[in-house]
Task: structure prediction
Amino acid sequence: MTRERAIVLTRIGWIAGFVLLLEAVCRLHLVDPLTLIPPSEMIATLWTMLASGEITGDIARTFATVAVAVVLAVAIGFSLGVAIHALPRIRQGLDPLLASYYAIPTFVFYPLFVAIFGLNSVPLIVLGMAFGVPAMILATLNGLDRVPRVLMRTARAHRLGRLSTLAHVVMPSALPYLLTGVKLALAYAFIGIIAGEFILADAGLGHAIAYAYDGFENRTMYSLMLFVLVVVTGLNMTLHAWEGRLMRRRIRS
Result:
């Protein structure tokens, strides 16, 4: 068995053990059923809601909003990262601001976004971008910093043009770090958008969870929370595995 497979099996074992422990705690009524329901009931309720199409609209609304926010955050963050990397003096001034950006409670600007753009998906997209763009800028700077100088000298020795150097030298070398930025932008977009839907939205998974919470519909609330948890974790684990594969390929080359 390879080391990577052993690590994956260990993670699955920890998750399965936690779920079984939670199931036992709930079934033995060590926790008030009004507070927490067994995972098996969450899964059964979620399956019923998915099969009936009850939450299809909310899923589509949240996923579409997240997708737009991530695409814009990655595109804008990458472009700004490349521009800042090419201007060292500007980078010196921006580095402290980027490093401390996440100390700012960006979420407090959500009411302002609603006042400017109205009660629709745009404020949520802007909020998701506000979380994701700095992560992509930092990942781009990190990736460009780590392009080996020997490769750049080799590209110059072979008189490669800018586009050829970018396509054949810079991007393959920086790609694992750029993927880290995409992974963080995706996670931050989900956090910002679902949190925004909790407060002020007329649809979406966050709105559905908040609505179930207000109506004491524990089964619905926990099932939706489980759905969000599984989807976001699955997406991040997929990107993490891809990132690891690219990093190993980069080291071997």
Notes: Residues 162-199 form the longest helix (38 residues). The mean pLDDT is 86.
